[in-house]
């Protein structure tokens, strides 16, 4: 069961670290991760955006 923090509407971070299954899954600028539709962070971000509308 992943633990997550709901992302804000505006991301003010230089880098995002995603841990999945206790291991580093992704580490990059949030804009790059969001642009990659296969990214775990992008999927999480999209779900959070959809649930807030």
Structure description:
The protein has 53 residues and is an alpha+beta fold. It has a domain of 36 residues. 34% of the residues lie in helices and 21% in strands. Strand 1 and strand 2 form a beta hairpin. The protein is globular and about 30 Å long. The termini are far apart. The mean pLDDT is 84.
| Rounded Rg | 11 Å
Low-confidence stretches: none
Question: What order do the SSEs take from the amino end to the carboxyl end, as H and E?
Answer: EEHH
Biggest sheet layout: 2 strands, antiparallel
Give me the number of helical elements: 2
* Strand numbers in spatial order across the main sheet: 1-2
Summing up helix and strand content along with how strands pair, one would put the structural category as: alpha+beta
Q: How much helix, percentage-wise, in residues?
A: 25-40%
Report strand %: 15-25%
Q: Can I get a quick summary?
A:
By secondary structure, the chain is an alpha+beta fold. The protein has helices at residues 30-35, 40-51; strands at residues 16-20, 23-28.
Furnish the topology, listing elements before pairings.
Layout: E1 16-20, E2 23-28, H1 30-35, H2 40-51
Antiparallel strand pairs: 1-2
Task: List key phrases describing it.
two-stranded antiparallel sheet, 2 helices, 53 residues, 2 strands, alpha+beta, ABC transporter domain-containing protein, 34% helix, single chain
